[in-house]
Queue: 2 jobs
Job 1
Amino acid sequence: MFASIRSRLIVIALLVIGSIYFLFPRTVSLRERGANGVMRDTTVTRVPLKRGLDLQGGMHLALELDQSKQVSADPKRDLDLALTVLRKRIDEFGVEEPLVQKAGDDRIVVELAGITEPARAKAIVQRSAFLEFRITNKTNALEKSLPAMDRVLRGLGVKAEAAPGAGKPSAVEQLLGGDSAKKTAAAKPADSAKAAPDSAAADTTPVPGGVLSGLIQEAGAVAGTATPGEYAVPETAFPRVDSLINIPAVTRQLPRGVVLRWSAAPTSIGVQQYRLLYALDDRPIVTGSNLEDAGAQLDQLTNGPIVTFQLDRAGGRKFGDETGRHVGDYMAILLDGRVQGRPPVIQSRISRNGQITLGNKSLQEAQDLALTLKAGALPIPLKIVEERQVGASLGSDSIRKGVTAGVVGTAMVILIMLVFYRLSGVLAVAALALYILFTLGGLSMIEATLTLPGLAGIVLSVGIAVDANVLIFERIREELVHGKTVRLAVDEGFKHAMNAIIDSNVSTVLTALFLFQFGTGPVKGFAVTLIMGIVASMITAVFVTRTFFMIWLQRRPAMTTLSI
Amino acid sequence: MLRLFANAQYDFIAFRTRAYAVTALFIIPGLVWLMVYGLNYSIEFTGGTLVQVQSKAPADVGALRAGLDRQGLHGAEIQSFGGANEFVVRARVAKPGTDANDTQATGDAVNQALTSVLGAGTFTIERTEAVGPKVGGELRSKAFLAIFLSFFAVLAYLAYRFEWRFGLAAVLATVHDIVATIAFIGMLRLEVSLTVVAAVLSMVGYSLNDTIIIFDRVRENLKKHKKDSFEQILNRSINETLPRSVLTHGTSLASLLALSIFGGEVIRPFALVMFFGVFTGTFSSIYIASPVLMAIEKRWPGQFARGHLATGPAAAPATGGGRKTAPVA
């Protein structure tokens, strides 16, 4: 096969043309979200070699179902559902070539290249965005249950005296809000002093030292304006009350059909920070699954951001019926189980359109919320199990360093080859140039992602790639020493070196395959460049260098000494 | 022509016991060191948070550490990374079973500590990594599995291409390389990251490559020089491949040198491990793989070696005059 020089040259030419074709800068169109939040198409011209997140900057997230609060009945289905939802959200987020895929049975991997606001991206990916509307309870269910709840707690050995330690923040919160611990300490005396007389006054059947009755008060008593089913808890006591009311034995004391939900953010009443607690119907009148469209805008009255939404036909009908029946009642809007803003009174039948007031959030956040609402809710919240994030400047810095190392390394290798093998060395260097071209072209062809370790792999492989040529050249030298003619020595040299080249390369490919199998992004990239490098080095050493020698020998048929 | 070690006739095999001593002197203290201090796993394997920061002015490490302590991050490592203005903060998750949400809180805490110590806007976070311990544990077992399985694949391939004796000798030499490399990593206190595991696996490939080149020559010489003893065959093969070894290792080392000088902090551990791998790979091909092959062939003679063992190693070094100091690499 390819016996004649002409056919060999044609093959080499095709390989070169192919590599150049795959490396030729081309114009691609991108869909991005502009500064004004509108999607737009832009075009850029660049070399079509995909750069990994570590080279171009970006974010890699691995997510799992977070079953700590809510257990999934069918994790496999929920994960698939989450995958679809995430795809929609990321699509709307507007990142160039995002990757959202399943990894293994229980994990989703999200890769966002070139993003500049990682915190936003994380929020969008993690937010469940479960929207629901519930009517607030107007039967004073919580007040009536409080004494019973306190009795249960007393039975469990929880005492009100522990209240000063009340708002003991969890470790995470201590990390997050450095000064919140201090605030707790300062607020404590005032709290307990204030809470004690209140509880005595409000309770119908007071339990002496009742823990919850000491901390939960009717919001009307504190704020002045009363919404049925609304209660206030000092912000400092919020974590403690939250953990107490979630004890199953305590929750059971509530009448059937009533659930408790917190407000999303603390409210300032006077000088005090309060967290509002709501008693709500356990059955939502409508949920986000009926949502058709959502958008963000600024409220004309308050100039605060709001999210407007539109329900689908079925949802609209249900919403209309329910709100019609509940005129004069208050409706809480819940997002991910937290009440957003204070529940508005239902003044008349509402059909398909509504809005969520977000308080002191930015328009950006409102836009992100609208985006997640539109893409749908996650069946189960997701937790981030792995996160990697590289800034764009570090990425380009890495490329520059990798290229410098590559250029210097290649120059040294070329020098060594020329010093040792003289004219034959020139052939080897030409083959090395083709080797680099083929490797990069091949990587571009299979759409491999070039990572930082991959870049190192290429630099290293330049040093190793000449091994095949060295093997052949040394073999030719040996044959020449044994007194063979130039032509015969070249033939024999190639023939005998072959076994060693194949065996050693196959074993390297084998280890690279295992590397590919186990590695994550960057390491996979390394394995791919290693394999591609070995393939290209075999082609250049065995085929290209051979052809060069054939041409050389044909032009100088009478050559008796070889410059090797 | 310029030839290094052309027609070299060193008696490598005769030096094997001394070579064993050399490698034992390196490996044993290295492993003892490891047992005392343990491997320095990166957060990819232990779980935890890494934040790489570039600040406008050189950062005061003491003040930073105090700031991190104030955030409750005791024992976080602060390391300069390439320059005075660039450093890395590593915080490991202490409790197993916690997930990355905690590591995220850690990341936020690092951010707050930096803001309070350096001042907002005077630093940029260039890289963050947060890995939950579960993921870390998975990665670790996957890495070991990959190294282990690649042994079997190579053993099978060599058994197919040569015969099992060669394969076993090559794999044993590789085991030596890995142990020596781990000792090296331990002594330099290099951080064992995914990239370093990748370097170890590439080193395995490189070392095998080298062993195979010699074995290929052994196979050839066994057929060609029927009268030589096995020891002579080994010596002849090693000597004949010596010029190739010197050149290839030279070009590889040149590339690695360029990588470790210019490639940046992330790549440097990779380059260092590979750099060491080139030496240990060469050493083990000559002093582990070849003598082990000889031992195996003596105990269970294969068809290639049968005639050669009959003459026995007592047939004296035919090459003569080779008892000079053998170059190790």
Job 2
Amino acid sequence: MVQKSEAALVKLVERKNQAAFKKLLDIHLSGINRYTVRMIGNATNAEDITQEVFLRLWTRAESYKPESSKLSTWLHNIAHNLCIDYFRKNNRFVQDPSENYQSDDSPLVASMSAHTNSAATSGGAEPDQELAKSTQQRDVKQALMALPERQRSAIIMCHYQGISNKDAAHIMEISVDALESLLSRGRLKLRKLLTEDGKS
Amino acid sequence: MNIQRFKKLIEAYGTESERWPEADRHAALIFLDSNLDANEVIREMRSLDEALDADLVTQPTNLKVDILSKISMTPNHSARKHGDDLFAKLWHWLRPYVNGPFIIWRPAIAACFPLLAGIYLGTVMDIGSEDHLLEWEEDVYVMGLISENEEQE
């Protein structure tokens, strides 16, 4: 039902109907922006990519085929490709998964363990909890950015964006098995980065 | 479903059942209800999901406005479909929609074009030259003589 109404809105966008475009923007903007921010790790560049995704919706709406994918999947596909292009242009495309790996005694893990200990000893005072929360957020962002782009993209799509495994595999042009492998390796690495022994 | 597949599932998709693939979800939930090892796997892995969920992204306030202002500056591609392609191209050449200073030389060249075209045509076709006028007068004179002779006959 949602897919049908979105397809109708896209048809209107093809005819340059701004009201239909605004409606689609309201539905998908925050989701796509969350994806690009987590992928790029830099709000300004992520915003540029998000803008480009929606400019493509405006200028190339006719290339969306509602019978083959949901609009959300189509937009994520564009966002994913733009992010990969961005990394290539900035020489940050990591092919070897071991390149960006941090060892267990990295500062990231040390800070994670320090804030966990401080929160435990402080008796749960509110400012300490806030500090611990913001530190944890920062650590998660850093850990995500330490992953190779494809592992990061797979985790963001499946964990944060609620995209199905089949759709995520389709976006990344890989099989579902390959996607599961990327997810497992990525999550294992995140556990190692965010906990002292990888067994939280 | 067995413990190996369940473990693989949790390692890939995490501990929240709504993130598990639809094809496996039902079997995995039944397995979880009846297997202690499966519960242990969930307990071990849960902290990563909690850490990931702590990461929030705030929405920039001006992003929607920026996108809407950009689309109003983009060329109307539907016009191309309706045969206005050439005009649209010319217009966007004259008034490019890219950010930056207005490019003055383009409209200036466009304004000079009729003048240059007139000079070129005048030179090539010899319009308005004295010889051309004389030839034209001779033609009229000859035609007049012919018609006079015809009347006399």
